[in-house]
Design a protein that fits this description.
This protein has a 5-stranded mixed β-sheet, with helices on both faces. Strands 5-6-7 form a 3-stranded parallel β-sheet. With about 270 residues, it is α/β, with parallel strands linked by helices. The N and C termini lie far apart (about 75 Å). It has 2 domains: about 120 residues, no CATH class; about 100 residues, no CATH class. The longest helix is centred in the middle third of the chain and has 15 residues. It is about 35% helix and about 20% strand. The N terminus is likely disordered. The protein is built from 9 helices and 10 strands.
């Protein structure tokens, strides 16, 4: 299936109240979308982007983000820290707020953010449970099913494993892909949308998959960036608390951070 409808973006009405001053910690999968929807956002004091590959190691992702979060304690010019992340394999679960509160969308992963809500994501999954999602950020690092991903895997494994082991790892990856049959490109109107949609279509053709191009919804990302943080869509973690996983539609919750125990040495 292939659809291509011109994207129309209607910017939000100018805010009547100045948004809170924030530091933005974001996965680079959102880099192009942040550039689009945070244009002229002077309340974003600082933006830090992190590599997509951190998703492969949730514990490393958590440690990295916690270090970055702690480093912002020294900043006097921000009101909150904002995470352009989801729960991400629980890689953000356990993050502890320091001096400043932090805000994160109630999302299991970034596709919820691209789709605009967890309800929209769930609805599309019901209609197309075998879809694999493509976006500009995922495409650019060649982490989506297609011939470029296989080539990168062979390059990465060369010298680490023998040919038989590499073939086995490639075949295992292809077995995972076999659970899908449709490449779904999510369009949020970025400057590279046409080129990246074409890339997703080429990947689909190479795999013998169907292809569709759908419009995402920028509302969740846009409101995250501009400080419109309602409790239903966003989780706020106050100083002294930590982010926890919630096994319900809330996705996440605030929990009490563990109290550091004093280091007492016995003479």
């Amino acid at each position: 299936m292939y659809s291509c409808i011109p994207y129309a973006f209607n910017p939000p009405a100018p805010a009547q109240v100045m948004p809170p001053r924030i530091a933005l910690l974001a996965c680079s999968v959102f880099e192009r979308e942040i550039a689009l929807f945070a244009k002229d956002a002077q309340h974003i004091v600082e933006t830090r982007l992190y590599e997509i590959a951190l998703h492969d190691r949730p514990d490393v992702l958590r440690a990295k983000l916690q270090d970055e979060l702690s480093s912002l304690d020294a900043h006097d010019n921000i009101d909150a820290v904002v995470f352009a992340y989801g729960l991400c394999g629980r890689g953000t679960a356990g993050l502890q707020a320091g001096r400043h509160p932090f805000v994160i969308p109630r999302a299991h992963d970034c596709i919820t953010v691209f789709m605009g809500s967890k309800e929209s994501y769930a609805g599309h999954q019901r209609r197309c449970p075998t879809c694999y999602y493509y976006t500009p950020g995922w495409n650019q690092v060649r982490r989506v099913p297609g011939p470029d991903k296989l080539s990168l895997m062979r390059e990465e494994y060369a010298g680490k494993f023998d040919d038989d082991a590499i073939d086995f790892l490639i075949e295992s990856e292809e077995e995972v892909w076999a659970m899908h049959d449709t490449a779904t490109y999510i369009d949020l109107g970025t400057d590279d949308a046409e080129a990246e949609a074409d890339y997703a279509k080429r990947c689909a053709d190479s795999l013998g998959w169907a292809y569709e191009r759908i419009h995402g919804d920028p509302a969740l990302l846009r409101d995250l960036l501009w400080g419109n943080w309602d409790e239903e869509r966003f989780q706020t973690i106050a100083p002294g608390s930590m982010l926890g996983h919630a096994a319900n539609e809330s996705v996440m919750r605030a929990e009490s951070a563990p109290v550091a125990q004093p280091n007492i040495t016995t003479p």
